[in-house]
Amino acid sequence: MTNTLATTLQPTLVHTLRMPIRWGDMDAMGHVNNTVYFRYIEQARISWFDEIACTPDPVGEGPVIVNAHCSFLKQLKYPGEIEISTFVGPPGRSSFEMFHQIRMVGADGNPGTLHAEGGAKIVWVNFPAEKSVPLPPAICKLLPPQKFLPPK
């Protein structure tokens, strides 16, 4: 992972999602449009949240993203299947980092080649109050402990 935080912290793999590249994901240049990579990452994030019963409750609390980033390393083209690996970093008071890697799977091209990596900062909020609140203990238990790697 090239993200600075990802290189100083030891993120933990928590989820893997496979999905097809759809014809409509491509743009006029014949490759997957850059905005679609964010949709792929979003689907992986929401799939993990669903898996851990952490879907946002508009009248209660839940996760929101406060920033998102993506590095486009190699273009994706239809047809094909991708695998999105989701990693999480250690918890803060009310937030944690998520990282994602998008790889091509199957027989086309070079299977397993890293095509993109990105992530987002997730903040736990009280939706009616519109304020961050401490992460629930159940979520903290799913996140890796704070461990810094020695500088290289």
Automatic annotation (TrEMBL):
Pfam families to which the protein is assigned, alphabetical: 4HBT_2
Concerning Gene3D superfamilies, the annotation shows: Hotdog Thioesterase
- Source species, please? Massilia aquatica
PANTHER family, alphabetically?
4-HYDROXYBENZOYL-COA THIOESTERASE FAMILY MEMBER, LONG-CHAIN ACYL-COA THIOESTERASE FADM
What is the protein name stated in its UniProt record? Acyl-CoA thioesterase
